[in-house]
Amino acid sequence: MIKKVLTVAGSDSSGGAGIQADLKTFEEYGTFGFSALTSIVTMDPDEGWSHTVTPIEPALVEKQLKTIFAGGPLDAMKTGMLGTIEAIEITRGYIDNYKMSNIVIDPVMACKGTNELLQPENVAAMTRLLLPTATITTPNLVEAGILSGIGELTSVEQMKDAAKKIIELGPKNVVIKGGHRLKTDRAVDLFYDGSTFTVFEDELFSTDYNHGAGCTFAAAVTAGLAKGYPVIDAVALAKKFVSAAIKNGQKINPFLGHVWHGAYNHAEDRMGKKEE
Q1: Which of 21, 86, 133, 199 has its CA 20 to 30 A from that of 40?
Q2: At what angle do helices 156-167 and 141-148 cross, to 10 degrees?
């Protein structure tokens, strides 16, 4: 039977990240996606593309999860941007009640394009309540620096130190996404299972069309786990999936470009590409 996968995250009205990225990725992996919205992110073109995050009422988050779990436990789930502490508590309740496994915690702390961290108290609640349930957590360099308490990470050795500290917070595995902030000519991600480090390297694409890359990566890991891949193999495939998505990123509007979630499977070709 088709694997069922859940994302508990924010909605990105521009279509590239958050719930939208997750569901597109789940589909490309051949899994059936469910979504519980915790917040809605909007961007105002009249105000320099400024971001606004509007949390969903916790009672409505609860109703969504009740609907989703009506059929019983799912094969995997991930969390992304979490709107309120109450939503985090509710999510933890469903994880416990349905004895969920294959859990990916993407510790989203800010919207791409902004420097403002989202609700530090939410980050603390996520760290306390959700990280200990995680099969794997997928922080970027900024998030890993905050979770570990180390601060700015600029080298693979610092990423290793951060990974060790993050594992102490409870997740079984961690992958720290390097990206452009690492100041190398390769796209470097670090995986740690509590005993062994694995460095994943790939081509680093110089592009601004990478909106949604982090969400897409975490969603790909989630779908891979749902399909029975060992954690490190799910990460390796997710790396290939998101690299193709970034390489084939598309300009969506005058303000930003998105990764193309269909790139790895050549989705545009499957439906028949018109000749130019």
Answers
A1: 133
A2: 50
